[in-house]
Amino acid sequence: MTAKENSYLYNLSIVIPVFNSENALAQLMEEIAQALTPKNLKFETIFINDCSQDSSALSLENIFSEHADVSIIELRKNAGQDNAIMAGLKYASGQHIVVMDDDLQHDPKYIPALLSELNDEVDVCYANFLIKKQNFYKNLGSKFADFCANILINKPRNIYLSPFKIFNAHIASEIIKYDGPYPYIDGLIFRVTRKITQIDVDHSQRLHGQGNYTLVKSIKVWANLVTNFSILPLRLSTFFGFFAAVFGFLLGGFYIVAYFFSNQLPPGWSSIVVLILVFGGIQLIALGLIGEYLGRLFLLNNKEPQFIIKNVKTNKKT
Fold first, then answer.
1. Which end of the chain has a smaller Cβ tally under 10 Å, C or N?
2. With contact defined as beta carbons under 8 Å apart, do 288 and 227 qualify?
């Protein structure tokens, strides 16, 4: 082991954002221990309680009392998954960082396989789910986000941006330099490195409760990707605005000519109303995009925090 590797307290830091998963957390912790302890991997587990509304806090307290090398970060208000992950990354002490969900759909037994993919040529390894056992609308949203990521952050088409992933500590140290209020972890990863791979894993069936990732949350993640990592939407708005202006100018010229050289007003005023509504809608969309960018700049300049920590408990063996 090199001197640099010795500088880390753990081989692995496992970062888990928690929201309303009281029935899954104890089993998740046991499965993590069963998967990693036989491999002689020294690991810590960092739970970030994102203002759960159930008894997740009590479940975490039980885990804390029964397991060593556990940290619990309690947020003062709900910050969202990516913000909660950012909080966990800032407390991670491992040479490699695992990010996974709290609902048992990410099987800890694949962590050693993910870790084995990291080397001098690979900084990040994603878990690629062969069959995603989740709601149809979530699969549809994932595909749409994946399509946008291909364009906006130049993601390779064969890479699936899975919420279950592992990356080196130096990647995490670059990610947490971002201090804006709307982080998008995968976008930040692609800002830092292109040494990325993936392995195929099974997606486990949800055993408890329902998914917390609603359509609204999916839209928020998409908005973070679109507005934080590209100005392409603004450029598209400019293009469509220019196209609408030219088309409107030509159409207006046609009707002026028709007015002077025809004995009656040109028919089709209903179509004109439709055109006005269509191009007016394009303009409103463009203004909305501009407003979204300006609003995010306003919050960034006013130092809107990513998260607010209420309490941190740790039993790390330093």
1. C
2. no
Strands 309-314 and 70-75: antiparallel
Q: Which residues lie across from 200 on neighbouring strands?
A: 128
Picking from 195, 116, 176, 169, the residue whose alpha carbon sits closest to that of residue 5 is 169
Mean pLDDT, residues 266-294 taken together: 67
pLDDT mean across residues, the chain: 82
**Does residue 90 contact residue 177 with C-beta atoms inside 8 Å?**
no
Q: Residue 239: enclosing H or E segment and its boundaries?
A: helix 232-261
Residues across the chain: 318
More confident residue, 285 or 131: 131
Token pair for residue 4?
Answer: 């640099």
Choose the weakest-confidence range: 110-124, 261-275, 300-314: 261-275
Query: What's the DSSP call for residue 134?
Result: S
pTM of the model: 0.76
Phi first, then psi, for residue 74 (nearest 5°) are: -105, 120
Q: Which residues pair with 125 in a beta bridge?
A: 166, 197
